[in-house]
Amino acid sequence: MAATLACDSESPWPNGERVDDGRVFYYWDRRRLRDWTFPMFTFALRVVINAAALWVAAYLLDGIVLSDNIATILLVALVFGLINALVRPVALLLSLPVLLLSLGLFTLVVNAGMLALTAWLTDGLSIDGFWPAFLGAIIISLTSWGLSSIIIDDD
């Protein structure tokens, strides 16, 4: 006799699917599963997307050197993501008058600064000056935007 676990009492398949693992039939609700797994999965996916964007920038530009070790690249991407999440909003707030005067173009300089800060904090990334950081920030922004729009579903 198969055991059954229903997520809601209204219906045996409440916005979920019936799953058969060979022994037990059970039902799961995608929304409930997504509540705790989706943020962790999305975070890991964003780190991988940042790593891919960093690799593309290092591949296209001579002034950016990225480590060949995958673990180091993922660590650099994690640090880059944390800097963008924690330091970048403060930098944007402090540079608000310049951002307004430049009609937002100064954001590119702030992004270059965040990339340079990442290179300064990690050993797996090195940047040879302002212009490679500036162009690398543009490439990283475009690459991560493109990959995120294709891969991550933000319902």
Description:
- With 155 residues, the chain is mostly helical.
- The chain has one domain.
- The chain contains 6 helices and 4 strands, in the order E-E-H-E-H-H-H-H-E-H.
- The strands form 2 sheets. A two-stranded antiparallel ribbon has the order 1-2.
- The N terminus is likely disordered.
Number of strand segments: 4
The assigned structural class equals mainly alpha
Record the strand order, biggest sheet.
1-2
Helix content: 55-70%
Low-confidence stretches are: 1-17, 23-29
Distance between the termini: 38 Å
Q: What is the mean pLDDT?
A: 82
Number of domains: 1
Tell me the radius of gyration. Answer: 21 Å
Based on Cα principal axes, name the global outline. globular
Q: Which H/E pattern describes the elements?
A: EEHEHHHHEH
Number of helices in the DSSP assignment: 6
How does the major sheet shape up?
2 strands, antiparallel
Proportion of residues in β-strands: 5-15%
